[in-house]
Every structure is written in C-alpha cells, then in structure tokens.
Amino acid sequence: MNAPAIVHLMRTQGLLASVPSSAKPSSVGSRLRRLRLQYGYSLAQVARSAGVSVGFLSALEREQMSASVSTLRRLARFYQMNILSLFNPSDANPGRVQPGERKILDAGPGVRMELLAWGNTMMEPHLFRIAPSASSGESYAHDGEEFLFILRGTLEISLSDGETLRLEEGDSFYFESSNEHRWRNPGKRETLVLWINTPPTF
Fold first, then answer.
1. Which of 16-25, 91-100, 150-159, 166-175 has the lowest mean pLDDT?
2. Domain 28-83 maps to which CATH number in 3.20.20.150, 3.20.20.140, 1.10.260.40, 3.40.920.10?
3. Are 102 and 116 in contact (CB under 8 A)?
4. CB 197 within 8 A of CB 145
5. Stretch 187-197: mean pLDDT, rounded?
6. Of residues 101 and 127, more confidently modeled
7. Which residue among 15, 25, 28, 77 has its CA within the 20 to 30 Å range from the CA of 86?
8. How is the chain split into domains, by residue range?
9. DSSP per residue, the chain
10. 129 in Cβ contact with 107 (< 8 Å)
11. Could you say which of 2.60.40.420, 3.10.50.40, 2.60.120.10, 2.60.120.260 is the CATH number of the domain covering 96-198?
12. Which pLDDT tens digit goes with each residue over 35-62?
C-alpha cells in the first residue's frame, strides 16, 4: 500500500479521527506534584535537577503549563521513572484500543502523544500530533530503537551526528535512540507521526 492508501485505511478505521472528548489528557502536573510531595522534595530541588525555573515547575504542577518532551524526560529521570508512566496505563495489555480509549499526554505546546498500546509489550507505539512550529524542545536520548512513519505533514529531525532530515508524508525513518535527537514541525499544518519505540523505555 502506498502512503495515501495507508492514511485512508487508518482514517476509515478511526485511527486518524479526532480523539473523542471522553479521552482526556493525563494529569501530568498533579502526578508530578504527588511524586514530589511523596519524596519530600522542594520545588527548588526538583526544578534545579530538571533545569527549569521554580515558577515553571509550580505552574506545571498546577496544570497551568505543559512541558516539552525533553523536559518531561528530565523530570521522569529525576523520579527514576519514564515518560510512559505519566500516561498512567493499566498493567494489562488491552489488545484492541479504540480511539476514545487511548492514553493521552500533552507534551508541550502543540504536541500531543496518544499511546496506542500498553502493558507487557515489546513495543511502545504512539500517534504524535504536532502543531505547526511545535517541537520536542531540547535534544534527548535514551536506550532502544525508534521507527517513524509520517502519516501527514512534515517533520524535521536533527541527530547528534549533525544529520538533519526533513521527513515528508509517506517517509519512514529508523534510528537508535541513544543518538541524541530533537524534532519540530516546520510546516503550516498539523503533522501526524506513527512513532514506535522498542523496548518501551521512553
């Protein structure tokens, strides 16, 4: 199947439909606040370790701000967890996941991650919705491998070896996650990316 056919198939199966209002973004801020209080850390301690301001962290915990993927990674690392844990997924693998059942995480202005499967899996598949000019923030790296397929729009990804790629609709890209990377949507419309990490340590 070519790229338009894949997009058509995913749309007819409801994979690209707007997420129903019943699927709410995860309350990342409240979880981060509970973790901080559970461990007895001050706002200043966590902010310093994550490289953000106290004011930003306070606003994030109160759900008044959203954090970029790179910032969420630093915060998750500080609490010795991964971003996936912020989705609050159940332990069981549901198998079939309908659009309204997806775990949703807002990862900075204009970036929405929709978890497509969870539980005891070898892969961690997401649907990334990236608004024009939205990005990952700073570069980040982690263990594992990644596969991207551009369903719609354009994605620019820069790697630590100096390579910068402009991926268009229908393009796919594989790389090792240990290669520091950052990305952004340079286009004028929303970019949709099927983004798969393995193992699920994102």
1. 16-25
2. 1.10.260.40
3. yes
4. yes
5. 96
6. 127
7. 15
8. 28-83, 96-198
9. --HHHHHHHHHHTTSSSPPPTTSPBP-HHHHHHHHHHHHT--HHHHHHHHT--HHHHHHHHTTSS---HHHHHHHHHHTT--GGGGG---SS--SS--GGG-EEEE-STTEEEEE---SS-S-EEEEEEE-TT-B--S-B--SSEEEEEEEESEEEEEETTS-EEEEETT-EEEEETTS-EEEE--SSS-EEEEEEEESS--
10. no
11. 2.60.120.10
12. 999 999 999 999 999 889 999 999 999 9
The answer to whether residues 191 and 152 touch, using CB atoms and an 8 Å cutoff, is yes
CA–CA gap between residue 19 and residue 155 (Å, rounded): 21
Check pLDDT > 50 for residue 22.
no
Of residues 9 and 165, more confidence is placed in 165
Helical packing angle, 54-61 and 28-39, nearest 10°: 110
- pLDDT of 66: 81
Task: Report the 10 Å Cβ neighbour count for 104.
Answer: 16
Cβ burial, residue 58 (10 Å; 0-12/13-18/19+): middle
Q: What pLDDT is recorded for position 134?
A: 96
